[in-house]
Amino acid sequence: MFFMSLRCALQLLKPDPEGKEFMERIIKRLHALSYHMRSHFWLDLKQLNDIYRFKTEEYSHTAVNKFNVIPDSLPDWIFDFMPHHGGYFIGNVSPARMDFRWFCLGNCIAILSCLATPEQSVAIMDLIESRWEELIGDMPVKVCYPALETHEWRIITGCDPKNTRWSYHNGGSWPVSSTM
Fold it and tell me: What residues form the membrane-spanning segments (predicted)?
């Protein structure tokens, strides 16, 4: 959403001397943000295989494993879920761990805002098509996949009852998303 806001701001500014300075700053920020997101938050089969082979405890500007992601943190479901011709932007990257869940709204916004490259946009749509039953099924699109289960949702959401398995905020369907 920040990326889309910057793009909108760029369109609203006048190209006068004061506006040009802000436009240059926004363009610089857009380039940095798009590079960061496309490089570090994109997940496809190639990236998944790279993560699987990451070395840990790399700490330098030349490190391949920039966030020191532990390969054992890859969830079991991800290998079956990832299609050969598909990919998506993950929800979060933190030290030693990535949130590998599929977040529909973020990926759709990435397409709409042009944060996703044309190739990434096609890959996102390919993933939706290949995983239609899991992501959409008989109901409107699910907000995330898979839902957090067992004690994991209690730890991450602080036992908030609105975030139980397949509820609105934890993998449930968002009817408003199907009208987008």
Answer: none
Specify the pTM. 0.76
Q: At what angle do helices 17-40 and 2-12 cross, to 10 degrees?
A: 160
Q: Are 122 and 165 in contact (CB under 8 A)?
A: no
How many residues does the structure list for the chain? Answer: 180
Longest pairwise C-alpha distance within the chain: 57
Pairwise CA distance, residues 52 & 86, whole Å: 18
Residues of the chain scoring pLDDT < 50: 173, 175-180
Q: What is the pLDDT of residue 75?
A: 84
Cα of first residue to Cα of last residue in the chain, in angstroms, is 15
Q: Give the number of other Cβ atoms within 10 Å of residue 170's Cβ.
A: 23
Closest CA to 74 of 55, 94, 99: 99
Helix (H) / strand (E) containing 89: strand 87-94
Instruction: Tell me which H or E stretch contains 103.
Output: strand 97-103
Which 3 state secondary structure label does DSSP give 9? helix
**Strand, coil or helix: what is 131?**
coil
Instruction: Give the number of other CB atoms < 10 A from CB of residue 139.
Output: 11
